[in-house]
Amino acid sequence: MKNIYEVGNVGENLKNRYILMTIIGIIIIILILFIGIVARVNTKKQKKIAKELQVQEQMEKEKEEEIMRFVLENKQKEKEEEEKATGIIYLTFDDGPTADSTPQILDILQRNDVKATFFVLHYSEQNEELIKRENEEGHKVALHGYTHTYSEIYTSADSCMENFRKIQEQVYNTIGEKSTIIRFPGGGSNTISRKYCEGVMTELTQRVIDEGFKYFDWNVDSDDAGRAKTSDDIYNNVTNGIKPGRSNVVLMHDFAKNNKTIDALDRIIAFGKENGYVFRKITDETPMIRHAVNN
Ligand code: ZN
């Protein structure tokens, strides 16, 4: 038989155990509640983030669609203008960029809101800014060659292709765009190449197209690299060469000290506008203007 003291002790122990169990129970309930609340808050947070992402994606999509719409509308507008126009004038400048002529030409184009095409040669780091400026102001940076030295370019079709690839890469490194619009040094009709490789132009004029390029000769020659001596000569050569109802690709140059062309440019643009022509840059969609091949 147990004594009273022992019985009392057992009762005390039971009571303590009961209290302990209750406390543990309460702690467990609190923990469960806490976890539940945290889980709910987290779910809410995740839902909020997901919704925000969805809204952001939607906004980006709408923005893209708006840009697409703008581009399409602009294209449509340009097309309508071209249909109504007397003809199209593509001003093209070869052999640049040069610190001397290119900025002056860009200023004139900007002032007149005219876009043009620059067939560029290898340029120094200093002149990189000019290529960037051409691109940023909406002109086409097209390719003329890494070098203009015929004896290096036209020894074989491979070396000419290499000459285009090298300038293509330099332009890509400057503006992040792989230009596929090219102009052969001397033009597709040049005969000088015969001196270095018989038949090379016949091969090249096909090969560049097979390799994804489009090449452009010209049908209006300012003759600023030839016999034209004054800005009047340039003006007359260009305005006499421009014909209605067709694409007029005008050959000019932004090599150094080409003041005669720079001085004629404002007047040439005024002539074009006054006579109902529109000015365009060459794009991937522009139909090629090509000379007959002579080698
Ligand atoms: Zn040239």
Summarize the structure.
The protein contains 8 helices and 8 strands, in the order αβαβαβααβαββαβαβ. The protein is α/β, with parallel strands linked by helices and 295 residues long. The protein is elongated, with a radius of gyration of 36 Å.
Number of structurally distinct domains:
2
Judged by helices, strands and strand pairing, the structural class is alpha/beta
Q: In this structure, how is the largest beta sheet organized?
A: 6 strands, parallel
Element-by-element helix/strand order? HEHEHEHHEHEEHEHE
Q: In DSSP terms, counting alpha (H) and pi (I) runs of 4 or more, how many helices? A: 8
Oligomer: single chain
**Could you say which small molecules are bound to this protein?**
zinc ion
Strand content: 5-15%
Report, as a whole number of angstroms, the end-to-end distance. Answer: 129 Å
The general outline is: elongated
What is the name of the CATH class of the largest domain? Alpha Beta
What would you say the CATH architecture of the largest domain is? Alpha-Beta Barrel
